[in-house]
Specification:
heterodimer, A: Alpha-Beta Plaits, B: alpha/beta, Rossmann fold, binds thiamine diphosphate, binds magnesium ion
Chain lengths: 200, 587
């Protein structure tokens, strides 16, 4: 005797959301995307940058910026990766990153962490004094000037640089280049080889 | 049937004995081979070529026995199957360029199933790299997303260490494929460096024991469950945890379902077994997983072929997830109790923490009812046409209990999963995650070489067989006693089934106007060929093929209309599995 057809079978009451999380009917947890700054200490060897960027693209993590540079120890480098993901995505990105063999440690920086970006803005050279005045309002400086163009340098948070760029729009902007974020935790907390040993 | 006496077979007596292998290192190549020997490698599957020639030259003096395959894809699949049946990394070798790209499918396959595999590829000399030299490809670039880790060897002194580390990484922690790209000047270069023994780098995560408080909490949830269920996955095979899982389930009387790679981890003959769950799983397994209240998933990544739509997967269940790879925790299904560690050890920990069995008499009875209500069945006509399920069942009856089954990909693979009764781990050798047609013929070669004392049978499809059948020449040359059964429906049947179900029967590019006579083809290769059409000849033909000492191919002409059921459509609700075409229309 064959069992009941699909529509006549015993059914559970619950559901999961698309992230595989059981839905609590009392309090449905919504996961809005948020910005997260990940700092990864990696081995300084060929291929690491492409391993990390390939990981983020193939797993469809929404990447805002990625910077990489040397550390005090020449065998390691530090990557700062800013992503925008719902909470489960942030957690998954951290775990996937940690799994890469050349990655020594991964940490999500607190939102209070210091974040700095750099922008170089090239504008027409007809009002050099005005340009310099605006640059100084944003703690920046003109770093190159010629008859036709002035280039200023601004460092700071993303918001500050966004605001500076907007302010420069009153001039004739010729070209802009921006870096991604470099970030460090405030206070004495570090992510160095000492923590690496205690991890193993 | 003609038997050609002139087919030259490899005579083991003629192969020079090189028991000791490499004793002293003078080149990078020797260091590579010394590293492999030191790691215990006994077999290699590969194809020669310019850039890898120095390595093959060192193999000349090695204790490793090399099996020349017809195609590098075959080498990768054979090595993968070898890895599944032995638990140790299988070795695949290829030259640069096309040799390396031909390995890619097999490496990706190993990655999806976490099979231990090490691939060595030749590369043009470092001076030429980046110049689009003859047979140059960016092999480390191409294989980066499908390897656990890959290496570009950049020094003759350290190339052996690279190979040792790659071997260790393939084997330890969550298993998987690794690759070492070997530029010709590096392997030819002089060195006297004996390679380091295999050792994983410090940054590699190899968790063993799960957090004690998490284990306690999981045990509490499990013993208080009303509807407990164990889901046993491929990780149970990989961690040799099958015995522990059996005793755990029996001691606490918890019903067990498996994933496809988990076939054999729990004996399907046991009263607690509900069989395989997922797209073509049993009705009982899918009812149980949908309605359980605590699900203990061991060594599984909750793949979509198992879960169907995640919204309806075990929606009432607290999930305990035993898993060696932290990145699998809550990736697809949220784990209420993540237990990160090696399955064997974590099951012991859980056992220690269980003070009593859950009270689940009613649930077990319910599961029993489902098993009775939804048996795996098919209609068996009096005479023709031959039913594929009958062929699988009959073979299972006649074969050794611990025979190894390998498969191609398609309907035949599902029938082999459904209608063969799996009782032991490492007896199901298939392309589960990648679904690679063509896995069948070479996988039987790797399985037989890895487990020479076991009976090996491959269920293949006509389409899948045509993708890698050239490897039959290797099975003949190596005189491997394997049996291939082609469940021949003159169609790429799985696609035809989906067209009939979901594309209004518009059969675009799924039916072959003509397929070769596989029995004759087998004979041309020097294997033994059989053609099977009548149900009454099934037993006799299978026995004749089994008794033949060497590779035999049965071309079984089956009912072309036969479809695989039960079925949960892609992304569907496991509890709404269809038992037939009419059900498919209802859901
Ligand atoms: C390499 C590859 N190409 C295409 C597919 C898509 N595909 C899945 S099943 C299938 C049909 C397989 O035909 P056959 O081997 O005869 O098996 P059957 O379903 O007829 O038993 C195809 C084309 C695949 N899985 N692998
Ligand atoms: Mg077919």
């Amino acid at each position: 005797m064959p069992g009941p057809a699909p529509d006549e079978r015993m059914r559970p009451i619950g559901r999961r959301n698309t992230q595989g999380i059981r839905i609590d009917p009392e309090a449905e947890a919504t996961h809005e995307p948020r910005m997260a700054v990940l700092s990864a200490l990696v081995k300084h060897e060929p291929g690491v940058l492409s391993e990390v960027s390939s990981l983020f693209s193939r797993r469809q993590f929404n990447i805002e910026s990625l910077t990489v540079g040397p550390t005090a120890d020449e065998t390691t480098a530090r990557m700062t990766i800013v992503i925008e993901e719902p909470e489960p995505g942030v957690q998954q990105a951290k775990k996937q990153l940690r799994k890469l063999i050349p990655v020594i440690e991964v940490e999500e920086l607190e939102s209070a962490a210091m974040r700095r970006e750099l922008a170089l803005i090239k504008v027409a050279g007809d009002k050099p004094d005005d340009v310099q005045a605006v640059a100084q309002m944003y703690g920046g400086d003109a770093v190159d000037a010629s008859k036709d163009a002035v280039t200023v340098e601004i460092t700071g948070s993303k918001q500050k640089i966004d605001a500076a760029i907007e302010a420069f729009e009153q001039f004739d902007v010729l070209e802009i280049v921006r870096t991604g974020a470099a970030a460090l935790e405030r206070g004495s907390k570090t992510m160095d080889s000492a923590t690496m040993e205690s991890d193993n | 049937m003609s038997e050609r006496a002139s087919i030259p077979k490899r005579d083991p007596e003629e192969v020079p004995e090189r028991e000791n292998g490499i004793e002293e290192v003078t080149t990078g190549s020797q260091s590579v081979i010394a590293a492999l020997e030191q790691a215990g490698v006994e077999h290699a599957f590969g194809v020669q070529g310019g850039a890898i020639m120095p390595v093959y030259d060192a193999l000349y003096d090695s204790s490793i026995s090399h099996i020349t395959m017809a195609h590098e894809q075959g080498a990768a699949h054979a090595a993968d199957a070898y890895g599944i049946v032995t638990g140790e990394p299988g070795l695949a070798m290829a030259t640069s360029g096309p040799g390396a790209t031909n390995l890619v499918t097999g490496i990706a396959d190993a990655a999806m199933d976490s099979d231990p595999l090490i691939a060595l590829t030749g590369q043009v000399a470092t001076d030429f790299v980046g110049n689009d030299a003859f047979q140059e490809t960016d092999t480390t670039g191409i294989t980066m997303p499908i390897t656990k880790q890959n290496y570009f060897a950049d020094h003759s002194d350290t190339v052996g260490d690279d190979v040792s580390e790659a071997f260790a990484l393939a084997e330890k922690g969550r298993q998987g494929p690794t690759l070492v790209d070997l530029p010709k000047d590096i392997t030819k270069g002089e060195t006297d460096q004996w390679p380091n023994p295999p050792k994983t780098p410090e940054t590699h995560d190899e968790p063993v024991e799960a957090d004690e408080s998490a284990v306690e909490a999981a045990a509490t949830a499990l013993k208080e469950a009303d509807r407990p269920l164990i889901l046993s996955g491929g990780g149970v095979v990989k961690s040799e945890a099958s015995d522990d899982l059996r005793s755990f389930a029996r001691e606490y009387e918890i019903p067990v379902i498996t994933t496809m790679p988990g076939l054999g981890t729990f004996p399907e003959t046991d009263d607690l077994s509900l069989g395989m769950a997922g797209m073509h799983g049993t009705g009982a397994a899918n009812m149980a997983v949908t309605n359980c209240d605590v699900l203990l998933g061991v060594g599984t990544r909750f793949d979509d072929r198992l879960t169907g739509g995640v919204e309806s997967f075990a929606p009432d269940a607290d999930v305990i997830h035993v898993e060696i790879d932290p990145a699998e925790i809550s990736k697809n299904i949220e784990a209420d109790h993540p237990l990160i560690g090696d399955a064997e050890r974590v099951l012991e920990q859980l056992d220690d923490a269980m003070t009593r069995a859950p009270e689940a008499d009613e649930w077990r009875e319910q599961c029993q009812t489902w098993t009775e209500e939804y048996p795996l069945t098919y209609e068996m006509p009096e005479d023709e046409p031959l039913k594929p399920q009958y062929v699988v069942e009959k073979f299972d009856e006649l074969a050794d209990d611990d025979a190894i089954v390998t498969t191609g990909v398609g309907q035949h693979q599902m029938w082999a999963a459904q209608f063969w009764t799996y009782e032991y781990p490492r007896t199901w050798v298939s392309s589960n995650g990648l679904g690679t047609m063509g896995y069948g013929v070479p996988s039987a070669i790797g399985a037989k070489i890895g487990a020479p004392d076991k009976e090996v049978v491959t269920f293949d499809g006509d389409g899948s067989f045509l993708m890698t059948m050239q490897e039959l020449s290797v099975a003949v040359r190596e005189n491997l006693d394997v049996t291939y059964v082609i469940l021949n429906n003159e169609a790429i049947g799985m696609v035809r089934q989906w067209q009939d179900g979901f594309y209004e029967g518009r059969r675009m590019a799924s039916e072959y106007p003509w397929v070769p006579e596989f029995d004759k083809l087998a004979e041309a290769f020097g294997a033994r060929g059989f053609r099977l059409e009548e149900p009454e000849d099934v037993e006799e033909t299978i026995q004749a093929a089994r008794e033949y000492d060497g590779p035999a191919v049965i071309d079984a002409i089956i009912d072309p209309a036969e479809n695989v059921f039960p079925m949960v459509p892609s992304g569907g609700d496991n509890g709404l599995f269809a038992l037939n075409e009419q059900h498919l229309e209802m859901i």
